[in-house]
Amino acid sequence: MPTPSMEDYIEQIYMLIEDKGYARVSDIAEALHVHPSSVTKMVQKLDRDQYLNYEKYRGLVLTGKGKKVGKRLVYRHELLEQLLQIIGVDSSNIYEDVEGIEHHLSWNSIDRIGDLVQFFEEDPSRVEGLRKIQEKNEAEEQNED
């Protein structure tokens, strides 16, 4: 099982390959805001753990295992963003919140969150009902001040 740091790299590599068709050390470093030397070390570790194949100066390719994990990690991230949008979290906080919680949830929890997102998406009136509860609670909080 990959560590949270490894997950961040696999997720980013997967997204870069999906978007650009390739992922270079410099692209990964820029996306993750780390030094290229840190990327090289992690890429070598991911190669040893068979998430990708890496050849110095030639680039890298995700293995079947790496693609499967990468796809699941991107799904987890997007699902958590969806949930936070549905429940009304300010959009300026969503990315940081997802980054803060995504590594701390079990896959069972992620699957249940997927069920919850589906529940809200299947009937928009459910989201409207949630908004009414939020408005009521906010009004009550303001009255307490």
Automatic annotation (TrEMBL):
Q: What is this protein called?
A: HTH-type transcriptional regulator MntR
What gene is behind this protein? mntR
Q: Name one GO cellular component term.
A: cytoplasm
**Pfam families on file:** Fe_dep_repr_C, Fe_dep_repress
Question: Which species is this UniProt entry from?
Answer: Pontibacillus halophilus JSM 076056 = DSM 19796
Q: Where in the cell is it found?
A: Cytoplasm
NCBIfam families, per this entry? PRK03902.1 (NF003025)
Q: What role does it play?
A: Central regulator of manganese homeostasis.
Molecular function (GO) terms for this protein are: DNA binding; DNA-binding transcription factor activity; manganese ion binding; protein dimerization activity
Gene3D superfamilies noted in UniProt: Iron dependent repressor, metal binding and dimerisation domain, Winged helix-like DNA-binding domain superfamily/Winged helix DNA-binding domain
- Leader sequence range is none
Family matches, as SMART domains = HTH_DTXR
Q: Where does Mn(2+) 2 bind?
A: E11, H77, E99, E102
Q: Which GO terms describe its biological process?
A: intracellular manganese ion homeostasis
Where is coiled-coil annotated? none
Complex formation:
Homodimer.
**Would I find Transcription regulation among this entry's keywords?**
yes
Q: How is its activity regulated?
A: DNA binding is strongly activated by Mn(2+).
Question: What HAMAP family would the database entry show?
Answer: HTH_MntR
Q: Which residues bind Mn(2+) 1?
A: D8, E99, E102, H103
The family classification in the record reads: Belongs to the DtxR/MntR family.
